[in-house]
Amino acid sequence: APRTGDADAMNYYTKQEMDGGMRYTGKCRIGNWNENDTMDEVRLKDYIAKRESGTLKMDKFNKRMATALQKVELTKGPDEYVRFGDVFQLENLRTGAVISVDAEARDPRPAENACAVSASFQTSPCARNTFTLERYAPTNPNALHDAYDDDLLHYGQKVKLVVNPAALEEVSHGGVLARLKSFPVSQTHFSKLARECEYVASWNDGYECVFQILTPDPTKRLVSEGVAVMAGAPIVMLHCNTNQLASVSGAAFENDFGQELEVSGKTAVGAGNSYVMEGIATGKPQSMSQKAPQDVNVFTIVSGATPAATA
Questions:
Q1: What are the tens digits of pLDDT across the range 238-253?
Q2: Are 132 and 89 in contact (CB under 8 A)?
């Protein structure tokens, strides 16, 4: 004969519940009605507590969107030139998307201390798609280091691109700034879609955060070096550690902000190695033999002084 405890356990739920059917509500005095009624009260109390403390998933999501998409005013300088301290956007020439960060899309590797970077079609200036410039100061300066006395950005100058701190309010790092960062392609660092150099926004400073601002035409880089950069003028951003240009190739993916494009490091040029080698053999500077990068590598600095922004 079955034990009494086993029989009670078998009869604890109704046959419909044991077969996977719909459960009875707490108002129905059949089966485990008392337990269902108690669980409903627990869920209600838990919901009220989370709603009052603002820890509901929807509250967290709305707060995250409000932080990332808060409006930001671009800097309107006295002239059309880009200066250190200006708030600006980086718009890709080919796609029209602007480089943006997602502070909540964190790198799962603790040592990286970084979040995701993408190119967004939401071009209205907001916290997640605005940046400022920071001077690059080498540990051991030498005669080749570009030292400019003014606060203007110059072609050929090495800088760091700092993420707007307003986009990272929910991520506390003791006031440490996040900067655009890239890595050489390896088994642990590569862009997920294009399989090129990975781009992130990192709180770990270093030479991996240094970029050189150049004109897209290689034949004009020698003569343009030291010339002040105008807002809205085409530029390319050469990553000093990987020697690859920042690129928005068009590889799309979905995130919480909608469909966005992947940002990676890859200099997109046509074949022309024999032409370059021939120029080097005849004493022609290599920069005069390089082919111009494609539009995926070309960006514009959009600020309040940009004609398109002030129109």
A1: 999 999 999 998 889 9
A2: no
